Amino acid sequence: MSIIAIAGSPSARSRSNVLLRYAAQALSQQHGSVDSLGIRDVSAEDLVHGNYASEDAARLRQRVTPARVVLIATPVYKASFAGGLKALLDLLDQTALAGKIVLPLATGGSAAHLLALEYSLKPVLSALGARHILAGVYATEAQVQVDEQGNAQLDEDIRVRLDAAIEAVSQLLPARTAPRPYDLGRLASQLQLAV
């Protein structure tokens, strides 16, 4: 199973990326590795020009296509999600999110922009084929603190809401099981039945 985390902020230390890393780390412990990418993985020129045919855009689509779960995080500016993220999403195929579980995460200056997830990001995700978009998590700047060294601290309320969102994703996924050793006797009997 594949999980991908998409960062909509160009800053590795952004508050939205803190939420994304928290969710990705929790899911990786339960379900295996999580691939991550962001707007910095596509050249600025390809983003600005919407260069669908570029090598960066092709690599982006190759990484998103096999994912079963998409975590997507963005800062909110002027009551909408980041323009760089929109440019990145424009490089995906029209049905790139079809059949995937999508968990949107966002941060903004105040609670006044809380509905940006509902009214700006979720319609774009839906236009890309997503039909299983979970309730997102929105945090204000005061709820996610990042110091000069990049260390982050989450408000308890946000941590609880993130944990609930991660649990919602986990409940929709099969449990991670350890590989079973081959039972050669059983395998031999199956092969004989197949002949």
Automatic annotation (TrEMBL):
It comes from the Bacteria. Residues 1-141 form the NADPH-dependent FMN reductase-like domain. GO terms for molecular function: FMN reductase [NAD(P)H] activity. Keywords: Flavoprotein, FMN, Oxidoreductase. Pfam families: FMN_red (PF03358). The keyword Flavoprotein applies. One of its GO terms (biological process) is alkanesulfonate catabolic process. Coiled coil: none annotated. InterPro entries: Flavoprotein-like_sf (IPR029039), FMN_Rdtase-like_dom (IPR005025), NAD(P)H-dep_FMN_reductase (IPR051814), NADPH-dep_FMN_reduc_SsuE (IPR020048). Belongs to the SsuE family. This is NADPH-dependent FMN reductase. The lineage of its organism: Bacteria, Pseudomonadati, Pseudomonadota, Betaproteobacteria, Burkholderiales.
